[in-house]
Amino acid sequence: MNNQNYFLVRCMYVILMGLGFPIMRYMSLNFDTLNNNAVRFISGGVLFCIFCLLKYKNHLKKINIKTALLLFVLSIFMTCNMFFFINGIKNTSALSGSVFSILAMLLGILVASLFFIDERERAFNYKFITGALIAILGSFLFIFNDHSLSSSSFNYIGFIFLTIAICIQSIQNVIVKIVAQYLPAIVISASTATISGLMFLLLAIKTGVISELSVTSKDLLILLVLAGIYGMFTGMLMAFYIVKTQGVTIFNVTQLLIPVSTGIFGYFTLGEKVDVIQAIGAVIIIAGCVFATKR
């Protein structure tokens, strides 16, 4: 594949991921978080499992007790991460979710530096430190100028949820890097998504919110299933493909464009608006992340 085709793949990824955040927010407004994640994860996870059974049978046979335990622990972190992330995006906006996903990249590198030498060398580089500080400054500017929040009280619960989510994700990424030494990314994704989906399903049954699905229209349920498959395809398969064919640095820079795409789709699909100061904050975050991830 030539450079032009690689560029088209990156453009398609930015566009599809930009639409993905409004889809997640729309579903979060129409379904309880437990039901939302249960259906989405199981739908995408089952599709991935079928693919693994067809293409990765040999790798599935290599899963031992240690690897299975790591996959289970990873699923627990994924479950917690998505619980807080969906609640966070539900109480803020699609753009907020995409911006915090960018911040998660920096935090992930910082936490990974505690365990891996290559990440440590990167985290203690002056460019990373300077860029991270710029991004954090931009995030404060973005958060404290969100006029959709209640002005009468300090109602920042959505941003608190998003912050917890990216903290969990940073630890989750360390486990992924360890497991990736033994299994392909597609196998990790399939098992993690399926197990997490089953965990959400059990929680939905135990809390009784599962009854919500019985009174939901079939059309909306089908949309939720498709949203799960869509999320897996864009958030995992396309991401892994870009990392594999074009490298981590190119992938990180590509991710920085997603908030722009999300802001556009959020405006046309959900009617979300961003004021000038928030736009400046988003630009500062992106600029800081570009500087931090630059080799």
Automatic annotation (TrEMBL):
<feature type="domain" description="EamA">
    <location>
        <begin position="12"/>
        <end position="143"/>
    </location>
</feature>
<feature type="transmembrane region" description="Helical">
    <location>
        <begin position="7"/>
        <end position="26"/>
    </location>
</feature>
<feature type="transmembrane region" description="Helical">
    <location>
        <begin position="156"/>
        <end position="175"/>
    </location>
</feature>
<dbReference type="InterPro" id="IPR000620">
    <property type="entry name" value="EamA_dom"/>
</dbReference>
<keyword id="KW-0812">Transmembrane</keyword>
<dbReference type="InterPro" id="IPR037185">
    <property type="entry name" value="EmrE-like"/>
</dbReference>
<dbReference type="InterPro" id="IPR050638">
    <property type="entry name" value="AA-Vitamin_Transporters"/>
</dbReference>
<keyword id="KW-1133">Transmembrane helix</keyword>
<keyword id="KW-1003">Cell membrane</keyword>
<feature type="transmembrane region" description="Helical">
    <location>
        <begin position="276"/>
        <end position="293"/>
    </location>
</feature>
<feature type="transmembrane region" description="Helical">
    <location>
        <begin position="250"/>
        <end position="270"/>
    </location>
</feature>
<feature type="transmembrane region" description="Helical">
    <location>
        <begin position="38"/>
        <end position="56"/>
    </location>
</feature>
<feature type="transmembrane region" description="Helical">
    <location>
        <begin position="124"/>
        <end position="144"/>
    </location>
</feature>
<protein>
    <recommendedName>
        <fullName>Threonine/homoserine exporter RhtA</fullName>
    </recommendedName>
</protein>
<dbReference type="Pfam" id="PF00892">
    <property type="entry name" value="EamA"/>
</dbReference>
<feature type="transmembrane region" description="Helical">
    <location>
        <begin position="220"/>
        <end position="243"/>
    </location>
</feature>
<feature type="transmembrane region" description="Helical">
    <location>
        <begin position="182"/>
        <end position="205"/>
    </location>
</feature>
<comment type="similarity">
    <text>Belongs to the drug/metabolite transporter (DMT) superfamily. 10 TMS drug/metabolite exporter (DME) (TC 2.A.7.3) family.</text>
</comment>
<feature type="transmembrane region" description="Helical">
    <location>
        <begin position="95"/>
        <end position="117"/>
    </location>
</feature>
<feature type="transmembrane region" description="Helical">
    <location>
        <begin position="68"/>
        <end position="89"/>
    </location>
</feature>
<feature type="domain" description="EamA">
    <location>
        <begin position="157"/>
        <end position="292"/>
    </location>
</feature>
<keyword id="KW-0472">Membrane</keyword>
